[in-house]
Amino acid sequence: MTEAVNRYHTAKGYFQSCIMIERSPERNTEARRTLTILSMMMLTGFSLELYFKAWLLTKGKTSQQVRSYNHRLYNLYRDCKATGLVVGQLDHLVDTVAVQHQDFTYRYIGADAKIPLLNWNTTFQILDTLDTRVDEAVGASALYGLQPGH
Length: 150
Known about the structure:
This protein is mainly α. The chain contains seven helices and no strands.
């Protein structure tokens, strides 16, 4: 498999893991819901990062170029848009997640950090559309004879 497909698969895994957390019957109290916010935000940030990197790899960026973005979602997204990636409401999701993904807040939260709350149903719809678009570009589902977004 190509590097783009590998990045795509990992992004999809993070996205699907976030869905599993959100829908888990174990998140049955406010305390348990609060306990999982950071992990869900981190998974969302890494999912976006890897979807964007997969996209850019298919658009001709080298592995070294893609890795040099590090965790800078704004730069990744800017360059993805410049190469034709369009997904409704993705601007807002990137704006909500990017800064604290880049500065490691979701992994190393400080006492004064403020974590934005996402509407998870909307977030999952955006990520699902992004997943399909990137899958179309990298051909991950096609490797198994499936349609993107299966």
